[in-house]
Design goal:
Strand content: 25-35%
Strand order of the largest sheet: 3-2-5
Number of helices: 10
Shape: rod-shaped
Mean pLDDT: 84
Radius of gyration: 49 Å
Order of helices and strands: EEEEEHHEEEEEHEEEEEEEHHHHEHHH
Helix content: 25-40%
CATH class of one domain: Alpha Beta
Low-confidence stretches: none
Number of strands: 18
CATH superfamily of one domain: Band 7 domain
Largest sheet: 3 strands, antiparallel
CATH architecture of one domain: 2-Layer Sandwich
Structural class: alpha+beta
CATH topology of one domain: Tetrahydropterin Synthase, Chain A
């Protein structure tokens, strides 16, 4: 026979075990326990930690309803329910479906709000706001893995998919969705004008000349939900259409046609791709060829062609100018032949040109003899 003295503090609760089996809960106070021939053991719990994490929890839930009602807050969630656990009015944990727990009554006021998951996949706005505020205050909420939180920026859209099916489009704002019992994904889509580069496309022209082209295009979503409903990856689909349009524009034309009118590529690609994107929720804004790169030997040949053409143009201009100069001289000679005064003026002009290149002139016998000598020299 043995007496056992036990003290349970005011912030504690005790579990009395007789021969390893539950006997009762000990509230704060002093106890003198009579063991007789049994083995007694008392386990104490600080009830500041409200959760009762013990192997006896399932036994108490199943076999001791009176003890549970008196000492614990009981939580039993169904497979289609989630729980929001608050301590003293502060959200501290999100409970998953099927959770079965006990929380000590006493120092900490524990409240559990039960949420029906079948009603809606979206977390109620009030709960989502509480989660956001809790995170902003850097408080830790357990079980956040069961909630998908999404921030959709301005000029973006969020495509909500539930269990692999597109559900709806989310506008700018904050959202939260339950991940329990379902697969929830939100893909952010930029609704602004976007650029797409189609680079390094090697294409043969109609006359079998290989070209390398770089194309730039701008586009936007007009209906993001339709685009992702009908196309797996809209941007990749647009890229392929631009490739095919570029090949259709270049492969059906000769090199000379392309060089004479470079804008024809832009026009053909734009018309073709726009017609093929109708009904997909994607709009092509503009298309432009950035570069047309010729093979090395073709560059040399074209340079020679250009050089020959420019040389021929220069020869034509030179001959035209020479003909004009000769015609002018002939007209001048005819004028001087019939007009002695004009001849005299021409002589004076010649003398002026000679004088410009001579520093000093000595004249003997008068100016008339000099002029007569110049005429005889000519």
């Amino acid at each position: 026979m043995e007496f056992k003295r036990v003290t349970v503090k005011k912030n504690e609760r005790g579990i009395l075990l007789r021969n390893g089996d539950f006997e009762r809960v000990l509230r704060p106070g002093r106890y003198h326990l009579f063991a007789l021939f049994d083995q007694l053991r008392v386990e104490t719990f600080a009830i500041e930690q409200a959760a009762f994490a013990h192997g006896l929890a399932d036994y108490l839930l199943a076999s001791e309803p009176a003890v549970v009602a008196a000492e614990f807050v009981r939580v039993e969630l169904g497979e289609n329910q989630a729980g929001l656990r608050c301590e003293n009015g502060v959200l501290v944990e999100i409970l998953a479906p099927g959770t079965r727990r006990l929380y000590w009554k006493g120092l900490v006021e524990v409240q559990v709000e039960v949420i029906d998951l079948d009603a809606c996949a979206e977390v109620p706005a009030g709960v989502a706001a509480r989660l956001t505020q809790t995170q902003l205050r850097q408080r830790v909420v357990a079980g956040l893995g069961g909630v998908l939180q999404v921030q959709v920026p301005e000029q973006w859209a969020g495509l909500l998919s539930v269990d692999g099916k597109l559900d709806r489009v989310l506008g700018a704002g904050s959202y939260a969705f339950w991940k329990f019992n379902r697969n929830v994904v939100v893909e952010l889509v930029d609704l602004r004008l976007q650029a797409l580069e189609v680079s390094g496309q090697d294409i043969l022209t109609r006359d079998k000349v290989g070209l390398r082209l770089n194309l730039s295009a701008t586009w936007r979503y007009t209906d993001a939900l339709r685009a992702y409903t009908q196309l797996q990856k809209p941007a990749e689909h647009l890229y392929r259409e631009l490739q095919l349009g570029l090949r259709a524009a270049v492969g059906t034309r000769s090199l000379d046609e392309l060089l004479e009118n470079k804008s024809v590529i832009d026009e053909v690609v734009t018309d073709r791709v726009r017609s093929r994107l109708e009904g997909y929720g994607v709009a092509l804004d503009s298309v432009g060829v950035k570069d047309i790169v010729l093979p090395g030997e073709m560059k040399t040949i074209l340079a020679q062609v250009v050089e020959a053409g420019k040389s021929a143009e220069a020869n034509v201009i030179r001959r035209r100018e020479e003909t004009a100069a000769t015609r002018s001289l002939l007209n001048t000679a005819k004028v001087m032949e019939d007009n002695p005064v004009a001849l005299r003026l021409k002589e004076l002009e010649t003398l002026e040109r000679v004088a410009e290149r001579i520093d000093r002139i000595s004249v003997f016998g008068g100016l008339d003899q000099v002029l007569n000598g110049l005429v005889k020299l000519q």
